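sry for the spam today, last one i promise. C-alpha cells for design, 487 residues
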C-alpha cells in the first residue's frame, strides 16, 4: 500500500487553476501541476483496501492501488506500466474523466477521496517526458486486415489493441484530423490537441494506417469494407438534438458542436468563413451538461457581454444524495472550471420561443419556469408554472442539448440492426453486430457516454474481433467484476 498512515497525515491536494482573468485570454490548458513531492504524498494516501471499490468504479478496471503504491515508492516507470496495462490513453482520461473511481474510493466515505485522476495524469506525463512511451509494433503479423471506422477514443483503442494482436489495421476518419470528439468537440483549453497528435504518432509508428477525410458510406463505398477480414464501427453518437420551439431557425440559434468545432479549427490556423462569435453578445447556453459548460468557457474567451445557462432539470444537491449512496456515481451539482469563469446558471426553466427582429435575427428568448411531477410507474411530467414567463435579451443561443444517437448512414448501407434507442445493436461484452464480421463499440453502440467507456469498449471489442479472426485471443479483458484477465 502507499503509506500506512498516509491518509491520516496528508490532505487531498488538487491542481490549481491559473487565474480567470489570465486564462480567458487564451485557449491553452491552464492547470498548475503539483510538485513531484506533493504527488508522491497523494499516492501515499491510498489505503490499499481489501476490496478496492475504485477498480469497479473505473470502467477500465484500472489497477489504482497498484499504481498509487508505485508513485508513493517513486517507481514511476512501473506505475506507468501498470497504468498502461489497462488504459491505452491515460493522458485523455487523466485530464477529462469525471473519475467515477474517486466516487467509489473507500477513503471517500469519511474523507476526500484519493486524487486518482490527477495521479494518472502525472504518471503518463512523466512517462512521455522520460521517453518511456515507445512504439511497440507486434513481432509478427497474422495476415488479417481490420478496418476501424471512426478515430475517437473507441476507434483508437480498438486499433491499438488489434495491431498489438498482429492484425493490419486501417482507421478511417471523415474529419480532417484524428481524435473524434476529443479533437473538435472538447475545447483546446480542456485538452490541448498536441496531446492527441503525440499519441497518434506512436500508433502510426506501431504500424496503424490512418486515412482522414474518408467518410465511409459517403465518399468511400461501403462495399470496399468487404476487402477487410473484419470491421469495427466506432462512429460515435453525433445525431444532434434540437428543440420543437418556435423561432428555432432564427439567425443566432446555433448548435453547440458547430460553435465549438469552429473555434478549435481557428485555434489551429484554419480560416472559418463567418465564424460564429460570442463577442459582445448576450449569450444563452441551453443545456447544463459538459457540452454546455464547454460553450460557456468558449463564450467567455470570445468576450461575451453576458453568459446565461438554462437547464430544464432541477438543481442537483450540493452533496451526495441518499438516492445515490457510496460507491455509486452521485447525482450532484457539478461546477466546472468554465462555470467559475462567469455564468448565471438557471435550473427548471424551459424555452418557449426564440424571438427575432423583422430580418429573422435573434433578439430574445421567452421562457417559463417548470416543475417535474413524479407519479410512481409513470414518466416524469413537465408542468409549466403560471405567471413565471420571462423575456431574456439574447443575440446568440447555443443548443447544447446532447445527442439523440448515432447517425444512420452506416447502419442503412451495411444493414446493421439498431436497438430501441437507435444505437448500433451489439451485445455488451460481445460487440458483434448482426453481420458476423462487423463489430460496434463506443458511443455508436452505447449512446453518448464518456471517454473512459469508449476506451474500454474499444479494448474489449478488439479482443472479440481477435477471437473471431483467430479462434482465441491473448489480448487482455476485464471480467464483470472489473478484474483483468490475460495481462
Ligand atoms: C462537447 C463535448 C464535451 C465532452 N466532454 C467530455 C469530458 O470532459 N469527459 C468525458 O469523458 N467525455 C466527454 N464527452 C463525451 C466523449 O467525448 C465521448 O463519449 C467520446 O468521445 C466517445 O468516443 P467514440 O470513439 O465512441 O466516438 P467519437 O469521439 O464521437 O468519435 C467518432 C468518430 O467517428 C467519425 N465518424 C463517424 N461516422 C464516420 C464515417 N461514416 N466514416 C468515417 N468516420 C466517421 C466521427 O467523425 C468521429 O471522429 C464530451 C462530448 C462532447 C460533445
Ligand atoms: S480512467 Fe477515469 S475512472 Fe478510471 S481510474 Fe482514471 S479517472 Fe478513474
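last one done:
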Amino acid at each position: 500500500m502507499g503509506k500506512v498512515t498516509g491518509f491520516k497525515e496528508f490532505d487531498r491536494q488538487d491542481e490549481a487553476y491559473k487565474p480567470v482573468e489570465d486564462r480567458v485570454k487564451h485557449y491553452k490548458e491552464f492547470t498548475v501541476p503539483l510538485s513531484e513531492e506533493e504527488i508522491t504524498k497523494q499516492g501515499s494516501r491510498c489505503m490499499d483496501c481489501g476490496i478496492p471499490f475504485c477498480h469497479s468504479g473505473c470502467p477500465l478496471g484500472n489497477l489504482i492501488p497498484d499504481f498509487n503504491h508505485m508513485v508513493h515508492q517513486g517507481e514511476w516507470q512501473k506505475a506507468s506500466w501498470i497504468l498502461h496495462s489497462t488504459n491505452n490513453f491515460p493522458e485523455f482520461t487523466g485530464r477529462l474523466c469525471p473519475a467515477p473511481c474517486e466516487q467509489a474510493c473507500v477513503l471517500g466515505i469519511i474523507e476526500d477521496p484519493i486524487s486518482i485522476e490527477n495521479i494518472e495524469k502525472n504518471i503518463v506525463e512523466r512517462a512521455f517526458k522520460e521517453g518511456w512511451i515507445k512504439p511497440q509494433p507486434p513481432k509478427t503479423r497474422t495476415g488479417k486486415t481490420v478496418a476501424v471506422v471512426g478515430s475517437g477514443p473507441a476507434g483508437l483503442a480498438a486499433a491499438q489493441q488489434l495491431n498489438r494482436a498482429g492484425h493490419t489495421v486501417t482507421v478511417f476518419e471523415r474529419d480532417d484530423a484524428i481524435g473524434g470528439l476529443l479533437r473538435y468537440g472538447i475545447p483546446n483549453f480542456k485538452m490541448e490537441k498536441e496531446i492527441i497528435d503525440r499519441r497518434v504518432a506512436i500508433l502510426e509508428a506501431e504500424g496503424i494506417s490512418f486515412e482522414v477525410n474518408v467518410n465511409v458510406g459517403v465518399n468511400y463505398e461501403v462495399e470496399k469494407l468487404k476487402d477487410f477480414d473484419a470491421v469495427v464501427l466506432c462512429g460515435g453518437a453525433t445525431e444532434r438534438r434540437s428543440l420543437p420551439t418556435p423561432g428555432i431557425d432564427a439567425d443566432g440559434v446555433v448548435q453547440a458542436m458547430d460553435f465549438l468545432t469552429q473555434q478549435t479549427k481557428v485555434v489551429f490556423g484554419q480560416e472559418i468563413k463567418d465564424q460564429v462569435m460570442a463577442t459582445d453578445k448576450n449569450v444563452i447556453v441551453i443545456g447544463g451538461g459538459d457540452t454546455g459548460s464547454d460553450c460557456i468557457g468558449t463564450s467567455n474567451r470570445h468576450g461575451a457581454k453576458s453568459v446565461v445557462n438554462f437547464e430544464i432539470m432541477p438543481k442537483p444537491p450540493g452533496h451526495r444524495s441518499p438516492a445515490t449512496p457510496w460507491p455509486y456515481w452521485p447525482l450532484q451539482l457539478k461546477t466546472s472550471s468554465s462555470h467559475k469563469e462567469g455564468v448565471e446558471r438557471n435550473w427548471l426553466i424551459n424555452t418557449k420561443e426564440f424571438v427575432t427582429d423583422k430580418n429573422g435575427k435573434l433578439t430574445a428568448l421567452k421562457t417559463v419556469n417548470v416543475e417535474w411531477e413524479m407519479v410512481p410507474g409513470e414518466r416524469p411530467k413537465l408542468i409549466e408554472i403560471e405567471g413565471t414567463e420571462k423575456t431574456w435579451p439574447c443575440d446568440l443561443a447555443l443548443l447544447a442539448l446532447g445527442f439523440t444517437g448515432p447517425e444512420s448512414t452506416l447502419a442503412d448501407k451495411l444493414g446493421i440492426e439498431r436497438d430501441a434507442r437507435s444505437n448500433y445493436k451489439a451485445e455488451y461484452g460481445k460487440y458483434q453486430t448482426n453481420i458476423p464480421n462487423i463489430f460496434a463499440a463506443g458511443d455508436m453502440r452505447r449512446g453518448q457516454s464518456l471517454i473512459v467507456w469508449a476506451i474500454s469498449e474499444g479494448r474489449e471489442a478488439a479482443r472479440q474481433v481477435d477471437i473471431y479472426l483467430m479462434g482465441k485471443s491473448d489480448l487482455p479483458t476485464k471480467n464483470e467484476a472489473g478484474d483483468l484477465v490475460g495481462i
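Residues 451-470 form the longest helix (20 residues). ok im logging off now
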